[in-house]
Each structure stands twice: as structure tokens, then as C-alpha cells.
Amino acid sequence: MSSFSGIWVPLVTPFRQGEIDFSALKSLCTRMLKRGVDGVVVCGTTGEAPMLTKEEQLQVLDAVLEIVPGNQVIMGLSGTHMPVIREMQDAISRRPVAGFLVPAPYYIRPSQPALVAWFTEIADNASVPVMLYNIPYRTGVQMELDTLRQLAKHPRITAIKDCGGSIDLTLSLIADGELDVLCGEDVQIFSTLSLGGAGAIAASSHIFPEEFVALIKQFKEGDLIAARQTFFGLLPMIRLMFSAPNPAAIKFALSLDGLMANELRSPMLPAPENVETAIRNYLNQHSR
Ligand SMILES: O=C(O)C1=N[C@H](C(=O)O)C[C@H](O)C1
């Protein structure tokens, strides 16, 4: 069973005049690979997955797979209706992906046993590893430690994208050693890696990806002082990238480099002008 580690970029989905800009998407993939990231996540939160039809999600995946080897691609699998999830899972399984990233069903706020049943059904149907996506502030439901421990016993559930915001939960999971723990909350990347986390899925790694890659290397080499310096160097940029609802700030920053249009799908809006000004000023002073 493969394991997940290092820096994985949850790709934005570029749009132009309302349509997916596949050419911009492929160029972005090439750029991220050249800069040394370990892999990409397709149709995560940052990819505006809820604003894509299922057919569009598969088209995005196919475009990414033209550039990125399948063992470096994790596909987001989200929803609230199991038959639709299963259909999508079967369609994705016909492609060579490394794993599924699966959040709890949002809006419904199921019980903890219901979450165990939900993820178990998805994992039973999975031909590749499942990464749990614990993001209670988006789904409305916290995945508790006991629930995660129960799910970790499933042979197909091998990793977690941890956005739970609880240091206690994070360190318990790392100490258990049953799941690869990837930080999903960009400002917590240094603390998660310090505790022994396997890596990060960080939207802000679209910007200066090589610095995030360097951070992982410094941790691997045990150079905590250099890692701390790299992290504090990245911190103002990370904060800027989350100063508007994600991925508005990231798309604006990428548009400044001419990589895509600054376009999001409703109900998302471009970042407000003061955020865009702050990003422009910051990147003018810190471009690499
Ligand atoms: O798309 C993702 O995966 C990520 N989503 C988080 C969010 O905005 O909820 C942020 C994280 O950097 C990656």
C-alpha cells in the first residue's frame, strides 16, 4: 500500500469566460512538477469542486493525468448522496490515480457511527488508498479521535488531511502511527512537521512551491533552524493567501504571473481590492 508524504498541491481549477481553461491547468501542472512538488490533488476545496459538474471533474482529472503521473495524483471525492459517490468512484477508478481524498458529507452533520459507516462503504469500494479529509469548519461535522482510530483499521484508509485545528488530535494521530498525517491547514505546517507529520496539502504552495519543498528537505535532514527560517519566510505569504475565501487570493496571485485568468465560479468572487493590492505589493517585493 502506497504512503503519502511531502508537498501535494491542491490544484486550483482555472476558468476563462466561465469554461474550464484546460491549457492553463496543464501549464500549471508542468510548473508544479518542475518545481519539485511530490504530487497534486485534483478537485479539492481549492479546485472549487462543488462548482464543477461530475463530468467536468473527470475532464479536469483527465487533463491533469496528461501531465502528471498517476502515482502523483490524488482525486477529491465529495458529496452527500452515496449512489452518486459510488458512481463517481467507479469512474475515477478506471483512471490511474494514487488515492481518493474524501471529506465527511457536508451540511448533514451525521453522528460518529454514521461517519464510520459512510467512510467504510467508500473504502470497501476503493481500489486505491483513501485519505480522510477532516475539515469540520467546512463540512459542519468534526471527525473525533475514536472515529478516526476505528477508520484507521480499514486496510484502504491510509492517510488523513488534517484541518481539524486541534493539536491534541494531530499529535494523537501521529503518535498512533496508523495514518500518514498531512497538514491541511497551511499555517500549521511547521508544527505538524515538527511533530512528525508526513507532509502537507497546502493551497499556498502554488506560490513559491520550491520553498515548501525545501522545508520538507530541511525537516528530513533534521535542520530545524533552517526549517524554521523557511517557514517564517513563507508565513506572511500564507496569511495573505487566506485573507480572502480560498482560492480567490491564490487565483489572483497566479493571474499576476499570467498563468490564468482571475476567475472563480459563483458563489465565489475574486478577492476584494485591498487584498489584491496587498498581494501585488508583496509579490513585487518577494518574487523568486
Ligand atoms: O483544497 C484543499 O485541499 C485545501 N483546502 C483548504 C481549504 O481552503 O479549505 C486549504 C488547504 O490549503 C488545502
TrEMBL record:
<comment type="pathway">
    <text>Amino-acid biosynthesis; L-lysine biosynthesis via DAP pathway; (S)-tetrahydrodipicolinate from L-aspartate: step 3/4.</text>
</comment>
<keyword id="KW-0963">Cytoplasm</keyword>
<feature type="site" description="Part of a proton relay during catalysis">
    <location>
        <position position="45"/>
    </location>
</feature>
<dbReference type="GO" id="GO:0008840">
    <property type="term" value="F:4-hydroxy-tetrahydrodipicolinate synthase activity"/>
</dbReference>
<comment type="subunit">
    <text>Homotetramer; dimer of dimers.</text>
</comment>
<dbReference type="InterPro" id="IPR013785">
    <property type="entry name" value="Aldolase_TIM"/>
</dbReference>
<keyword id="KW-0028">Amino-acid biosynthesis</keyword>
<keyword id="KW-0457">Lysine biosynthesis</keyword>
<comment type="similarity">
    <text>Belongs to the DapA family.</text>
</comment>
<dbReference type="InterPro" id="IPR020625">
    <property type="entry name" value="Schiff_base-form_aldolases_AS"/>
</dbReference>
<comment type="function">
    <text>Catalyzes the condensation of (S)-aspartate-beta-semialdehyde [(S)-ASA] and pyruvate to 4-hydroxy-tetrahydrodipicolinate (HTPA).</text>
</comment>
<feature type="binding site">
    <location>
        <position position="46"/>
    </location>
    <ligand>
        <name>pyruvate</name>
    </ligand>
</feature>
<dbReference type="InterPro" id="IPR005263">
    <property type="entry name" value="DapA"/>
</dbReference>
<feature type="binding site">
    <location>
        <position position="201"/>
    </location>
    <ligand>
        <name>pyruvate</name>
    </ligand>
</feature>
<dbReference type="InterPro" id="IPR002220">
    <property type="entry name" value="DapA-like"/>
</dbReference>
<keyword id="KW-0704">Schiff base</keyword>
<feature type="site" description="Part of a proton relay during catalysis">
    <location>
        <position position="107"/>
    </location>
</feature>
<dbReference type="InterPro" id="IPR020624">
    <property type="entry name" value="Schiff_base-form_aldolases_CS"/>
</dbReference>
<feature type="active site" description="Schiff-base intermediate with substrate">
    <location>
        <position position="161"/>
    </location>
</feature>
<keyword id="KW-0456">Lyase</keyword>
<dbReference type="Pfam" id="PF00701">
    <property type="entry name" value="DHDPS"/>
</dbReference>
<protein>
    <recommendedName>
        <fullName>4-hydroxy-tetrahydrodipicolinate synthase</fullName>
        <ecNumber>4.3.3.7</ecNumber>
    </recommendedName>
</protein>
<feature type="active site" description="Proton donor/acceptor">
    <location>
        <position position="133"/>
    </location>
</feature>
<keyword id="KW-0220">Diaminopimelate biosynthesis</keyword>
